[in-house]
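Q: A reviewer asked whether we had any structural model of the full assembly, not just the individual parts. We don't, so I'm hoping you can provide one. Inputs are below.
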Amino acid sequence: MHEFELIRQAFRRKAPFIHPSTRLSNGDDASVHTLPAACDLVVSSDMSMAGVHWPHDFPLADAACRAVNAALSDLAAMGAEACWLWCCAAVADAQSAEQMGAGIAMALADRDIELAGGDTVHAEINSLSVTVAGMLPKGKAMRRDAACVGDDVWLCGHAGLAAYALQQWQQGNRSQEGIRAFREITPQLDAGIQLREIGVCCCIDVSDGLLADAGHVAAASVVGIEIAVEKVPGFFALCAFLSRNEALELLLSGGEDYALLFTASENLREHLTALATRIGRCTPGSGVKATLDGKNINMIRRGYDHFS
Amino acid sequence: MHEFELIRQAFRRKAPFIHPSTRLSNGDDASVHTLPAACDLVVSSDMSMAGVHWPHDFPLADAACRAVNAALSDLAAMGAEACWLWCCAAVADAQSAEQMGAGIAMALADRDIELAGGDTVHAEINSLSVTVAGMLPKGKAMRRDAACVGDDVWLCGHAGLAAYALQQWQQGNRSQEGIRAFREITPQLDAGIQLREIGVCCCIDVSDGLLADAGHVAAASVVGIEIAVEKVPGFFALCAFLSRNEALELLLSGGEDYALLFTASENLREHLTALATRIGRCTPGSGVKATLDGKNINMIRRGYDHFS
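A: Here is a predicted structure for the entire assembly that you could use as a starting point for your response.
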């Protein structure tokens, strides 16, 4: 089959939505878009690869859907409305292209997000590089460097459950229920927009692990962060299946649930309790401290590191 | 070495330029940009891989530089000013990351283009997915579907020389002069902007091969295209080293010189002769016809197809 035909069939036809801000879509040298004058452009680029971001034997359509959702989570963390994506797919064969196309379409179904372009290359290992773009009111992006001493720390979503589900898969559990938390991640796009509208200024998505990502906020904002582990959604669910230490390990270091971690001053509490769970606070100093029932926890691993 | 440190060292530090339209750059979940109200956003995403887009033994920094320039060529074809790029690098080891970072920096040197974000993954085969974005006055993008019957067909740049240089490398020629046309491609960004300002509406960059890309214009614009091969810059240079048939093959089917192919009505001729070479015309009908001294040429291969 010819490259152009293959790309067209596997990707374009399955995701036909055109965003109203698009002047020229998929099929020219580039796509062209007109942004509303009151909006900033927000862009992020993420790469996911078989054997690194999902097991080689994991269903490829689910993996591709997950890769797109993971990329969209970065827009959620900024408080942006997601509008477009561009996918560069390295595919082992035509069947892989077909499955990746189906996964991308699954991620975009029922969302007003356009597949505006991309590229396809023949490779031994399947991978998907996803660039996502969206918009938000000028100057209103939530950032990592805007936490203040005294802020509450909140989590919208849960932690550790995706890592546990991936462990289940790796141990041979093929039940839909067992692996759902890894397979079906949801970028918190609506919640991100609501948080921004409420007045939240500091947010990050938890992709590297709760401690690692809280550490990024602490470093960028020059604050310390304390997290009360027993308050983190997911902890008691993990404790039902695992020892306390195993549960702590997954909760604090297992990334990829794509929850939103954010900070906000106390006076926003009443607006936030319906959206998220308060799990800690920002302190003077630096670094992240995790406690369980008031006692310090010492962790060694801090998030997933491809090169360690 | 830790992933974050590796990425920071290899990529960010080497390309420190921040575009004046950027509010928040590399280092947060996403980058944030404010476009001038009179401008459209133009975006393209391209993937380049060792063993597909460059030989495995080709210097990696040169290959990465080439990959960025190839992606920027898509913005040139639209007539856009290039502003930002996001790079997803799959790297075999820290040395590869270092070399790719150097190559990206080489491509951006002396250009006002920002490395605004990206991702790095450990992989067996080096590859680089590059998303580029730029801007141009609203509604003024040059497109593939705007050629008219009677238009002249022009080429800004040359054809076939990059394919010949690649052949030289594959045959063991390691001289700088022999491989320069493959290694050092130049995206025609300034020329693209000039063409748009002169009033050119229809343009494509020649990445798949002269016949294949002229075919894209012909199909999108619903015209035929005739190309007089003896007028194409590069033909006589190739004939100095190769048989006539070999020269024709590389000229018409060897892509990756990243010239701009465009069409324009006769009344623009006097403005265009300093920028480009007139190589043919748009006719009623469909498809692309190549002639040499008035005689038809029959070609079988039509550009590079990863899956054929």
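A: Points you may want to mention in the reply: Residues 302-308 of chain B have pLDDT under 50 and may be disordered. The CA atoms of residues 12 and 109 of chain B lie 13 Å apart.
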